[in-house]
Inverse folding.
């Protein structure tokens, strides 16, 4: 009977030791993951420290609180989103393409620099570039003859 109790005590000891090792490994992994995740989501060093300490000092609930409060996007995702927005704004600002060759042209070009297709006409009074289909200059009010755009072959 005494041998059985001794064996049972050793078994419980080894199971408790194994559970402790697993818990310690998971807790350490959660602390490291929190630090790396927060570093990827914020540039604020104090936020890194607070989040890591929260998970380190309150093992399970600290991780749950961190997951609820962490920033939604990483710095890389925010950077990619800003690049996409910048590209969209640039596309809005310079949407003009030459109907003759498809080259990108600026809004104040009168001729395409690549294929020489007429893109706009100059106002006879103020010399500003006008769309070919406009019948009046919006800058000075002078009447102009509308023209048709025909791509160069």
């Amino acid at each position: 009977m005494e041998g059985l109790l001794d064996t049972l005590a050793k078994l419980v000891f080894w199971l408790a030791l194994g559970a402790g090792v697993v818990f310690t490994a998971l807790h350490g992994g959660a602390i490291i993951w929190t630090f790396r995740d927060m570093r990827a989501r914020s540039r604020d060093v104090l936020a890194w420290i607070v989040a890591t300490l929260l998970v380190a000092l309150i093992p399970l609930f600290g991780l749950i609180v961190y997951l609820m409060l962490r920033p939604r996007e990483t710095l890389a995702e925010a950077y990619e989103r800003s690049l996409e927005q910048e590209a969209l704004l640039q596309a809005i600002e310079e949407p003009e393409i030459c109907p003759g060759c498809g080259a990108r042209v600026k809004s104040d070009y009168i001729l395409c620099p690549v294929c020489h297709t007429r893109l706009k006409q100059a106002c006879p009074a103020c010399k500003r570039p006008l769309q070919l289909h406009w019948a009046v200059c919006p800058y000075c009010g002078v009447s102009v003859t509308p023209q048709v755009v025909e791509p160069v072959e």
